[in-house]
Design brief:
elongated; alpha+beta; 7 helices; 3-stranded antiparallel sheet; Chorismate lyase; single chain; 6-stranded antiparallel sheet; 283 residues; Arc Repressor Mutant, subunit A
Length: 283
């Protein structure tokens, strides 16, 4: 066992009992949280476990990233600093860091050190709300309502909602954020009489939660998933480069009476988001 790996508790980046990391986020994402507030973290390893030390450290770092304790932009320092402050050997730290670099969670920057990039949300492909899924995963969802108004249904929207073209429908546009970073642009069309609430309600909860609260039972949906390059407007909104890959999702949702209650057209940052499928063999 390398020298310096005899303690039961690991601390890093300060001589104090806890790890303190500055959190740096682009101010245009969420000014209220874009601060360099220190974050206290403590790591521990079980040296009697057959699980390698590097893997134990990597798992704890990954968990801190996924739960938002280490936000995008957090600086971890370089490997030499980390090894000294964690009380672990440099090869152990290097292997842990490399495993997270390979996953796209960390990046090494010359002259800066190791930095948190992001955590990717993996969402099961089922009839659920993005807000609820993010909240359940500890991703701290937030919403900016961009539009909440009534308009005349286009031919596409009318066909999806089974209303006449030109009929009045409600258009809801939102930007979904996690840990202060934009993740998805959500555009939803609803029957005009479906919800009577104000747009402020959508800033603190999800659309499906509001539907359920209004007595609507969601039963099934038709959904298609695709991908395309971001336009200049979409790139600016989502914090991506022009031409960056975006996942697309279109969904028509039905209640338990068979009535269409939602037509959704969403865009997700492919760098932050993926869909998960469960595949079964036909008998």
């Amino acid at each position: 066992m390398p020298r310096g790996e005899t303690g039961k508790s690991l601390t890093a980046l300060s001589g104090q009992p806890n790890l303190r990391l500055p959190v740096k986020r682009p101010a245009h994402y969420a000014p209220s949280v874009a601060k360099n507030d220190p974050v206290d973290l403590e790591f521990s390893v079980d040296r009697s476990s057959p699980v390698p030390l590097y893997f134990q450290l990597a798992q704890q770092l990954e968990a801190a990233i996924e739960r938002g304790r280490l936000s995008p932009g957090s600086l971890l320092g370089n490997e030499i600093e980390l090894a000294g402050r964690l009380g672990l050997s440099r090869p152990t730290v290097r292997q842990a860091i490399q495993s997270l670099v390979d996953k796209g969670l960390l990046v090494r920057r010359r002259g800066i050190g190791t930095q948190v990039v992001h955590s990717q949300v993996r969402r099961p492909l089922e009839l659920s709300s993005l807000y609820d899924d993010l909240e359940a995963a500890g991703q701290r969802p937030a919403t900016q309502v961009l539009r909440y108004e009534k308009e005349a249904a286009t031919a596409e929207v009318a066909a999806a909602l089974a209303v006449a073209q030109g009929a009045e429908v409600r258009r809801v546009e939102r930007l979904r954020l996690t840990h202060g970073e934009p993740m998805a642009y959500l555009c939803n069309h609803l029957p005009s009489d479906l919800l009577q609430g104000e747009s402020e309600e959508l800033e603190s909860t999800g659309l499906y939660r509001l539907m359920r609260g209004a007595g609507i039972t969601l039963h099934s949906a038709r959904q298609s998933v695709g991908a395309r390059a971001a336009t200049a407007e979409e790139a600016k909104l989502l914090g991506e480069a022009v031409g960056a890959p975006l996942l697309t999702m279109e969904r028509t949702t039905f209640d338990d009476t068979g009535r269409p209650v939602e037509y959704a057209s969403h865009l997700y940052r492919a760098s932050r988001y993926s869909f998960e499928f469960q595949l079964l063999v036909r008998s």
